[in-house]
Every structure is written in C-alpha cells, then in structure tokens.
Amino acid sequence: MTVKIYHNPRCTKSRQTLALLQQRGVKPQVIEYLQNPPTVKELEAILQMLGMKPRDLMRKDESLYKEQELDRERMTHGQLIGAMIHSPILIERPIVIANGKAAIGRPPENVLAIL
Fold first, then answer.
1. CA atoms of 50 and 44, how far apart (whole Å)
2. What pLDDT, in 10s, does the model give residues 36-75?
3. Is residue 78 classed as helix, strand or coil in its secondary structure?
4. Residues spanned by the domain of 34
5. CA 81, CA 2: separation in Å to the nearest integer?
6. Interval 25-30 mean pLDDT
7. C-beta of residue 53 within 8 angstroms of C-beta of residue 76
8. What is the DSSP letter of 28?
9. Cα–Cα distance for residue pair 65/1, rounded to 1 Å
10. What is the CATH number of the domain that holds 107?
11. Rounded to an integer, what distance in angstroms lies between the CA atom of residue 48 and that of residue 65?
C-alpha cells in the first residue's frame, strides 16, 4: 500500500499525523508541500477524493487568504486552485492519501479510516 502525506514539519497536527502513521508501521511518502506544492491535476484529484470544493480545503485564518480576498463569492474554482498552487500555505494540512482515498489529519486519527 502506498501512502502519501502532504506534510508541514512546522505544524503540530502534521507532525502528530506522521508519527501516528509511523507508529502503525506505515512508511508514507512525505511530501513537504510548501517546498513541493501539488500540481493543478494533483490538487484536483485530492479535492475529488476528499469530496471538497477548493475553498473547503483552504486555511481561512491565513493572512494571505484575507489579503488576497479569497472569500469573495466571485472567485472561480480555477482562481482558488491557482491561489493554493501559488501559495501552498493556504492548503489545509496534513493531507494523507491511501487506497484511492484522502483524509485531513485534523485530528490525526481521521487518517486511520482510509488505511
């Protein structure tokens, strides 16, 4: 089984989720998404697996979210995706992908459902 985690080592929940996976014997592919953001295609696939729309996956408390006025109703799907690709700090984390499914590790135990 291939498991990926979109990880931010500075984030407590991300570190806890990675530790939980490792405690379960899972050796995930760790993607530090701030340095290696997902492509448009990858982000679209993640959204589909999560059953979310772009804004649902965005960190609305980030200053960039407010500065870029990403809460405006007229923002298109493509514009929101582009904002996350350009500024990956806007993407909620951690995201774990396994078995064709995805889960957000908030709380970390959420990811156990897809293993």
1. 10
2. 999 999 999 999 999 999 999 999 999 999 999 999 999 9
3. helix
4. 3-114
5. 25
6. 97
7. no
8. P
9. 35
10. 3.40.30.10
11. 22
